[in-house]
């Protein structure tokens, strides 16, 4: 186990977006569940709090602590494969970009993914990370078992037959129930996706949204704010024998690096220097994007590299509320005058049964609002939050929001059960920090 202590030797931790930071008293990198248990027990003896950090891709200060920071850098990879059931047991610190190609080699895949693969598996499920598709769910829905180190140092394995309440609470668990050292995942046979990307009008997309998401497996809409233009991405599952037209490597690089990241960075810098140009820039961007049609293995279509830094808030609302939410947001942006060069993202998801999932028992539309990291948000996050509040919006646990425990008690039918499980497994709040106290209560 690697341990770094002393403020001069534990550099300040900052998340990917630069929206959260911490100066932990010590940083530990255990090599197995038993070492994680030692870490938790010794932190308790010192009266220190414990927070696990995944890849630091959450925008909220979920990982911040002045106590012990646990990094599962050494707990990575596949531990076990059940080929008959299509299940794998993976170490909690496994990054998705490591997991996805290994699964492909086994002829398996996660059923749905978000748009990047930098997160660790335990970090991704802890905040309810999701992709898009009303016939599909978030990553935590694929979790069929968890191994956790609890606050008293015990190591427990939970699933739908063993301590089902802890299993349900910890699937999207915000790191509040213990350190997840192993995750068992129900995979699907590896599959290919045909990716169709076209320019479209926001008004047309909203008018046909429910029909469109019913017809395509994964619909992702990028809306160029200040304009009626969108990039419409429709990914459909194709037969595994359907090779389709795969994208040459140079073109994938051109799209991801040059057009995706470098052009986006340049466009955002320009808008930061001359905010009044943002509407023109967005209109041109919306017209300039080219149509694309290619087929590839699922994870290569779902995930791309995101190098331009931004701040983001994302809320899930009932699917039928989407046109109203976008209409109100658009009216606010048009009236307000602040420049928003970053495209907003609209996705959808089927209902699930994970207690703290944003799609718990609700077919949902997701609206994500961003601002380039060098620009002031101009009040958009607060305005967006007051719009979605009226539509029973549930914030992504890892993205900017100000909601607290009393809001979540109203928004999540099983919130009381979640708190009861937390009282049972972490009565001394070993895994708490200020942010968790705000969202789950003291
Ligand atoms: C560029 C970018 C793109 C994104 N795209 C998407 C997207 O498409 N869809 C989406 O839903 N979200 C997306 N997100 C949000 C991101 O997926 C989540 O915030 C996710 O939780 C980050 O995973 P992580 O490994 O970085 O975890 P961290 O942010 O480091 O931690 C998140 C939480 O998990 C806990 N945790 C981590 N490891 C463990 C463990 N082993 N045991 C217990 N608790 C643990 C932490 O304590 C913390 O509470 C994106 C974020 C960024 C910056």
From TrEMBL:
Stored Gene3D superfamilies: 3.30.465.10, 3.30.70.2520, Uridine Diphospho-n-acetylenolpyruvylglucosamine Reductase, domain 2 (3.30.43.10), Vanillyl-alcohol Oxidase, Chain A, domain 4 (1.10.45.10)
GO cellular component: membrane
Keywords: Ascorbate biosynthesis, Oxidoreductase
Record bears the keyword Lipoprotein: no
One Pfam family of this chain: FAD_binding_4
Entries under InterPro entries matching the protein: ALO_C, FAD-bd_PCMH, FAD-bd_PCMH-like_sf, FAD-bd_PCMH_sub1, FAD-bd_PCMH_sub2, FAD_lactone_oxidase-like, Oxid_FAD_bind_N, Oxy_OxRdtase_FAD_BS
Gene Ontology molecular functions: D-arabinono-1,4-lactone oxidase activity; FAD binding; L-gulono-1,4-lactone dehydrogenase activity
Location of the FAD-binding PCMH-type domain: 20-190
Pathway: Cofactor biosynthesis; L-ascorbate biosynthesis
Superkingdom of origin: Bacteria
GO biological process: L-ascorbic acid biosynthetic process
Protein family per UniProt: Belongs to the oxygen-dependent FAD-linked oxidoreductase family.
Name used for this protein in its record: FAD-linked oxidoreductase
């Amino acid at each position: 186990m690697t341990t770094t202590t002393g403020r001069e030797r534990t550099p300040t931790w900052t998340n990917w977006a630069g929206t959260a930071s911490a100066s932990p008293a010590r940083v530990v990198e255990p090599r197995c569940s038993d070492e994680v248990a030692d870490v938790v027990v010794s932190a308790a003896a010192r009266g220190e709090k414990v927070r696990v950090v995944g890849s630091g891709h959450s925008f909220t200060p979920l990982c911040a602590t002045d106590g012990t920071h646990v990094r599962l850098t050494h707990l990575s990879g596949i531990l076990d494969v059940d080929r008959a059931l299509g299940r794998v047991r993976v170490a909690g610190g496994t990054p998705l970009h490591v997991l996805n190609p290994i699964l492909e080699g086994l002829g398996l895949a996660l059923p749905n993914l978000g748009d990047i693969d930098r997160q660790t598996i335990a970090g991704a499920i802890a905040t309810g990370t999701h992709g898009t598709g009303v016939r599909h769910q978030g990553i935590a829905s694929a979790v069929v078992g968890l191994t956790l180190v609890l606050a008293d140092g015990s190591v427990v394995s939970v699933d739908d037959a063993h301590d089902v309440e802890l299993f349900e609470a910890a699937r999207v668990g915000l790191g509040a129930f213990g350190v997840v050292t192993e995750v068992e995942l129900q995979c699907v046979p590896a599959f290919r996706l045909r990716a169709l990307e076209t320019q479209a009008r926001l008004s047309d997309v909203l008018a046909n949204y429910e029909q469109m998401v019913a017809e395509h497996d994964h619909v992702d809409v990028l809306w160029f704010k200040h304009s009626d233009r969108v990039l419409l991405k429709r990914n459909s599952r194709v037969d595994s024998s359907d090779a389709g037209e795969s994208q040459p490597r140079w073109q994938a690089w051109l799209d991801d690096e040059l057009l995706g990241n470098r052009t986006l960075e340049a466009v955002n810098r320009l808008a930061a220097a001359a905010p009044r140009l943002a509407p023109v820039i967005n209109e041109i961007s919306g017209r300039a994007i080219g149509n694309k049609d290619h087929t590839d293995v699922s994870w290569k279509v779902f995930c791309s590299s995101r190098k331009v830094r931004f701040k983001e808030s994302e809320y899930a609302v009932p699917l039928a509320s989407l046109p109203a939410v976008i209409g109100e947001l658009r009216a606010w942006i048009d009236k307000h005058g602040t420049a928003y060069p970053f495209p907003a993202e609209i996705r959808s998801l089927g209902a699930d049964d994970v207690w703290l999932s944003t799609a718990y028992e609700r077919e949902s539309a997701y609206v994500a609002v961003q601002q380039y990291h060098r620009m002031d948000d101009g009040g958009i996050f607060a305005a967006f939050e007051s719009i979605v509040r009226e539509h029973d919006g549930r914030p992504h646990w890892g993205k900017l929001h100000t909601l607290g425990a009393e809001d979540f008690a109203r928004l999540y039918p099983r919130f009381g059960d979640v708190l009861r499980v937390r009282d049972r497994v972490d009565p001394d709040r070993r895994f708490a920090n200020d942010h968790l106290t705000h969202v789950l209560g003291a």
